[in-house]
Amino acid sequence: MPTGHHHEELSAAGDRAVIRPLAREDGEEFTARARESRALHHPWLFPPTTPEAWAEYADRVIEDPARRGFLVCEPDGSLAGYITISNIVAGAFRNGTLGYGAFAHAAGRGLMSEGLALVVAQAFGPLGLHRLEINVQPRNTASIALARRTGFRLEGYSPDFLHVDGAWRDHERWARTAAPVRRETAVPAGRGGGSGG
Asked: What pTM value is reported for the model?
């Protein structure tokens, strides 16, 4: 997989939102937007709000070949949110884990829905992934609604899954695959047995 310096092909535009790779130069605007969004993010997200935290975050996202960082932007280029694909695994799994956050001024305007759909298209297209998952705390209703709107389905519940805000937190696991999930055809009750065709 290419390193973080060669992601320019992973930009895309929709009707209202544009996605592009996160770059170190985005630090000033990103941290300012994160500071403005503390009330929206707490207690779910803790994006970098200082230059030092930004440098560490950007290095981690840009340099790690198992991560891809995207910014969701308005058509004028201003930042609306961010989406990261982490834990990218190739081979038979071809899976990645999504994390995301809207900035307060952009919340509720549909920018993240479109941005997430664009990132999913990049993940299943140029990045060659087959499956994406989102792990979200059960009370984070806005994040769950975004996952659902973007075609993710609830797969399971993971107790004490991630250490967030000083404690181990339970999470719901939402996922989707590049192809629709095939299910065995159920035989309706009272119709008798059979292999279902």
From this structure: 0.84
